[in-house]
Every structure is written in C-alpha cells, then in structure tokens.
Amino acid sequence: MSYQTILTTLENGIFTITIHRPDILNALNRTVMQEIDAAMDEVYSNAAIKAVLFTGSGEKSFVAGADIAEFVNLTREEGMLLAQRGHDIFNKIEQCPKPVVAAVNGFALGGGCELAMSCHFRLASSNARFGQPEVNLGLIPGYGGTQRLVQLIGKGKAMELLMSAAMIDAQEALRLGLVNYVTTSEELIPQTKQLLQTILSKGPHAVAKVIQSVNAYFREGEDGFAAEVQYFGACFGTDEMKEGVTAFLEKRKPSF
What we know:
Elements: E1 6-11, E2 14-19, H1 30-45, E3 51-56, E4 61-63, H2 76-94, E5 100-104, E6 107-109, H3 111-118, E7 121-125, E8 129-131, H4 145-153, H5 155-164, E9 168-169, H6 170-176, E10 181-183, H7 185-200, H8 204-218, H9 224-235, H10 239-249
Parallel strand pairs: 2-3, 3-5, 4-6, 5-7, 6-8, 7-10
Antiparallel strand pairs: 1-2, 8-9
Helix pairs in contact: 1-2, 3-4, 4-5, 8-9
C-alpha cells in the first residue's frame, strides 16, 4: 500500500513505519493519523509482518507534536471526536499482538510522545527530547498521554511534566523509565532492530500472550492475575509450547 505522509518497509519480518513530514518535524495531522491506522491494519492482517518499528524522518524529530493549525475553530464536540479517534488508533498500537517498538530520534512532543508511549517500549537517540506541552495551548494531552505517562513514570513526576510542560532529555527519560535504552543516532535503528530480532526468535504466540497479560493490568475492570492464568493455560494448547519444551529437553534451539 502507498502512503502520502508515512514510509513503510518490510525487512526480515520487521515492518518499519516512518512518519515522513520532515519539513514540519513530522507533525501529526489527520492524514498521518489515518495512514498510521491503515498501516496498523496491515500489521494485523499480514502474516509476513512479525514486528513493528516506529520512527521519524531525519535526526531532528520523531514527531514534534500535532499539527496545531487543525485545532483552530474546533468545537467542544469536535475536540472530543478528535481525541477519541486518536485513542482508537493508539489503542490499536498498544493492543497489537505483535511487538511494536518506537525508535525515538529527536523531539517526541505532544502527540509524538503519546505515539511513542502507545508502543510496547521505546529506545531513544542521545538527542531525543520528550514532553507534553499541551497546557501551553490551554489544552491537555488528548491521545492517552495523561494515562500512559502515569503508567510509565508514576503519578508524581507525570503530574509535574503534564502541568509544567517541561521537556526532558534522553538520559532523564531513561532514568524515569520512559525509555529502555539510549544510544547514538547512528546506532538507534540497528540496535532497535537487533532487539526486535531477539524477540522474534522467541515463540510468537507466547510473546502475544505477554502483551495481552501486561496490558490486562491496566485495563479497567479486568483482573490481570486472572488474565495471566487464562493465557498461561492457553499456551499449553499450542504446538509452539510443545516445540519449546521438547527443544529444551533435547538441549537444542527451538524452531518456532
């Protein structure tokens, strides 16, 4: 499928989605969001895609936020619809049964930080900067930022960043647990792909159940422990589990 505002490549099972609006620091607009949504539909339906890597064009920016020009003259109801659409798309990323990782190169602000946080985890280049500056516009994050930032770094620090609109650098993001690794701009994509290849060497059904079980912890009204019991049991009904256990007993690498 061809897109106007994103670039996609598939190599060794890894589907790279690059937000491609470098002239305005890869800002999100309606078209970008629609194309991310369509690309994620492709991820769900294409068996050749085993994992997803999100990044942005150039070294300056992952996504520097939303395209604010689209906010002018929106009514309250239209603002709610805009937020709900963003939630639906980013939830699709978060709930994806295939691993989805963000390689954050440069600014990840506003909607860009929210996009990164919807991925299962994040790596950052040393020049990365994170923030939710919406209060500068008299707004709050609308694509899940108030919820995911709390989940990732805790209530107190999240409250501070959300209310102050402060930006943090890559090392502070690492210290807070917002990112898993910090590396150079040159090594960001190779290191992210190397980590994804390690994950892809494991049982894909089991990896999907890890994602579901962890996400269950945060879903309102769901018992994460009960979900783990259910998904653990489900693994016993798969050929993948039988191969994994047999390979372990035979002291060989499994063939998933």
